[in-house]
Write a structure and sequence with these properties.
With 218 residues, this protein is of the alpha+beta class. It is built from one helix and eleven strands, in the order αβββββββββββ. It starts with a helix and ends in a 15-residue tail after the last strand.
Length: 218
């Protein structure tokens, strides 16, 4: 009888020890789980919202004048921004021409002003005027100039009468007087560029573009 009592006591102690050990392991596992760093969620970068067509032209001429012209389709028309460098200080006529090529040195292959409405040449701020009348670019002593305007007489793509794709932009050596027909007595054609659709599109947001986003290339 005493022998059975001893064995029962041993079994009871063993069971209690096993139970305590199992309980301790559970506490340790729960503690480790609570202290573990949360699994980071994958961040998804939203695709940029494409809102408009863009086009551009690279200006170049034998005299060293270079520049970039961008065209952006907006609700009120086409926004034109031109930047030139290496030009002579002063006032220079700047126009969109109907031709499709820039053959140096005189760029006569660019043809006449782009004028789908067949109206008189004039000041782009006052009708009537050619759709290609962009006015003048003021060039400073450092040889750089800038032009910024929006024209309701132009469109990008679609093949309509006012489509600028495939046309040419000309930077002239003299000032456009807005009177002399048909080109404003703007002097020689100093630099030229062919308008092409850009590889990319304008974004609605002003936030920085994500890495790898398309960059306009003309």
């Amino acid at each position: 009888m005493r022998k059975w009592s001893v064995w029962c006591a041993v079994l009871i102690v063993g069971a209690v020890f096993a139970s305590c050990k199992k309980s301790d392991e559970s506490v340790v596992q729960e503690s480790e789980t609570a202290n573990a760093a949360p699994t980071p969620m994958m961040e998804v970068t939203p695709a940029p919202t494409l809102t408009s067509d863009i086009a551009g032209a690279q200006l170049a001429g034998p005299g060293g004048v270079t520049g970039v012209v961008t065209f952006t389709q907006e609700a009120g028309g086409v926004h034109v921004v031109a930047r030139v460098q290496g030009a002579k200080a002063g006032t220079h006529g700047f126009h969109l021409h109907a031709g499709a090529s820039c053959d140096a040195p005189d760029f006569k292959s660019a043809g006449d002003h782009f004028n789908p409405a067949n109206v008189a040449h004039g000041d782009p701020a006052v009708p009537p005027h050619h759709a290609g009348d962009f006015g003048n670019v003021e060039v400073g002593a450092d040889g750089t100039g800038h032009l910024d305007l929006t024209s309701a007489d132009l469109s990008i793509g679609g093949g309509g009468a006012n489509d600028i794709l495939g046309k040419t932009v000309i930077f002239h050596g003299g000032k456009d007087d807005f009177k002399t027909q048909p080109s404003g007595n703007s002097g020689p054609r100093v630099a030229c560029g062919v308008v092409q659709r850009a590889q990319g599109a304008a974004e609605a947001s002003t936030a920085p573009a994500p890495v790898g986003a398309a960059t306009p290339v003309y």
